[in-house]
Amino acid sequence: MAEARDKALKKGELYELACMLAIASCLWLIGDTLGIFAAMERAVVGYGLWGVIFLGFLMSFALGIASVMKSVRLRREMRAREAAEQNALSIARRDALTALPNRRMLIETVEAATAANPLRTPSSAILIDLDRFKPVNDVYGHAVGDAVLCEVAERLTALLPKGAIAARLGGDEFSIFLPEEARSGELIRFAQQTITRLSDPIYWEGARIDVGATIGIALFPGDGEDAEALLRAADIAMYRAKREGRGTFRFYEQRMDEELKERVTLEIALRSAIQAGQIRPHYQPLVDLATHRLLGFEVLARWYHPQRGIIPPDVFIPLAEDTGVITELCYSLLRQACLDARSWPARLGLSVNISPCQFKDRLLAARLLSTLRETGFDPRRLEIEITESALTNDLDVTRATLGVLQSAGVSIALDDFGTGYSSLYHLRELKFDKIKIDRSFVQSLENEESAKIISAIIGLGNSLGILTTAEGIENRRNSEWLADRGCTYGQGYLFGAPVPATDAARLIEATTPPSDRDRLAAA
Question: Which residues contact 58 (CB under 8 A, 6 or more apart)?
């Protein structure tokens, strides 16, 4: 574009010069033909005007030089302006940190490629989202995070096939456009190669930084007719890959879009359900395995949707965590459970699960204790269950939070013990009151390895003075086997399914000795 403007400018200047020369030639012909020059010569000689003529010549020469200099300055200014425009255009179309094309340039490139593709030859849009990038900024700082992004950009550029373009869309999100047709197998190999390369460690001032990548792939023209549609389809596919475990890739499918719309609808309904009290606590019995005596209940959430009926917790709990409403949901359930359990015998406790997301809140302990004070529920009757994933965010904050709760009398249980990667470390660092054996081990007791793991967990708990609870007990044989090996408490359908507060109250009444029942009635 700049070259074309330069040629046009030169052409205009030459045209103007030619016009001036033509005018001068015409004036000379007219003057010579009419004898004007001869008359002027006689006047100059007769009146001695050579000085005036010479002065006019010098002034004309000076004006000519000034005109040339002005033209040169104008040319320089125009070139400087063009350079500034090109620089501004480059800045507007490239990412300032990585120097990769940005979203705007990527869209322009895709639009140009599809417009120049009348035969609608397939092409591919790949969207890449980094895994585990946020902790890099949190732990090492944004300068290191920027360095990681630059390294990722270099690796992507090195991986690009001929004719492809890589872009940074923003944050830790990148994209690649492959304009040439590629077979499914080639795309799969490229996606796997990209994930492998981006998962290689990055070293920064002696520190090893591990990130990964999750990829979504969309194909033109089947998944989208334009750039925005293609990127949206790739984003939906990437989101599905994230949900299914990260560090992998997915091709876009039409049903993904339908499921995403369904998810958005469910998100809106979830927020309304919490406000309307449609999500209510259910109570599953916790018993002493040696005597089968009822000791309390675990609080479990159940969503009664007015149109869809009961929505399973494995559907809405992850949704609540992803959308950030899990905290509001947890406090709502705890408040209702405490109000329900105030009239129960004081020997019966409540066990409540706390989401790993909530441990990011440094005021978690204060908020929980405030709810207990508000409802008048004794903290010594409450047990908080946490999973190991809650301990990997910030161990110091978690230790402080659990310490405050235990000082107030709240018990702490490590849930799903045996499924994490650092259980022994956490048992050493944190003073748990109870460990819960994951149901997957209990329900596969016939497997010799599972039986050995359970025996080892029970033995570890006994040696450390920590009580043990087995989840998922569904038959008497498993219950007796666990009791014989010293497991303290049990929970599962053998002792009762999760039930509403009214059914829990009936169960309490049926299992309460007459003498205790009379004492409660008197109270």
Answer: none
Which one-letter DSSP state was computed for residue 161?
A: P
Q: How far apart are CA 78 and CA 91, in angstroms?
A: 20
Give the DSSP H or E segment for 324.
none
Asked whether 103 and 170 are in contact (CB, 8 A), the reply is yes
**Six-digit token string for 327:** 């905290």
Among 152-161, 303-312, 483-492, which stretch is predicted with the lowest mean pLDDT? 303-312
Measured between alpha carbons, how far is 263 from 167 in angstroms, rounded to an integer?
29
Rounded mean pLDDT, 448-452 = 89
> Which 8-state DSSP code applies to residue 360?
G
d(CA 490, CA 477): 13
Per residue in 15-42, pLDDT (tens digit) is 776 777 777 788 778 877 877 767 776 7
For 83, phi and psi rounded to 5 degrees? -65, -40
Contacts of 243 (CB under 8 A, 6+ apart): none
- Quote the CA–CA distance of 386 and 412 in Å, as a whole number: 8
| Single-letter amino acid, residue 514 | P
Confidence of residue 173 (pLDDT cuts 50, 70, 90): very high
pLDDT value for 139: 76
Which of 43-47, 309-313, 453-457, 483-487 has the weakest average pLDDT?
43-47
**pLDDT of 520 strictly over 50:** no
Please write down the long-range contacts of 87-91, taking CB distance under 8 Å and 24 or more positions apart: none
Distances, alpha carbon 204 to alpha carbons 133, 136, 208, in Å? 14, 11, 7
Confidence class of residue 523 from pLDDT cuts 50, 70 and 90? very low
Burial class, 326, CB count within 10 angstroms (exposed 0-12 / middle 13-18 / buried 19+): buried
Place of tokens 């990667």: 421
Tokens 């408490």 — which residue?
489
DSSP letters, 259-312, are HHHHHHHHHHHHHHHHHHT-EEEEEEEEEETTT--EEEEEEEEEEEETTTEEEP
DSSP helix/strand/coil, 57: helix
Give 168-207 as a DSSP string: EEETTEEEEEE-S---HHHHHHHHHHHHHHHHS-EEETTE
User: Which of 239-253, 293-307, 366-380 is the least confident region?
Assistant: 239-253
For residues 122 and 499, give the distance between their C-alpha atoms in angstroms, rounded to a whole number: 55
| Secondary structure of 429-442 in HEC code, one letter for each residue | HCCCCEEEECHHHH
Instruction: Classify each residue of 48-86 as buried b or exposed e, where b means 16 or more C-beta atoms within 10 Å of its C-beta.
Output: eeeeeeeeeeeeeeeeeeeeeeeeeeeeeeeeeeeeeee
- Site of tokens 């003073």: 431
Query: How many CA atoms are closer than 13 Å to the CA of 123, on its beta-carbon side?
Result: 29
The full length of the chain comes to 523
What is the spatial distance between Cα 177 and Cα 113, in angstroms, rounded to a whole number?
A: 10
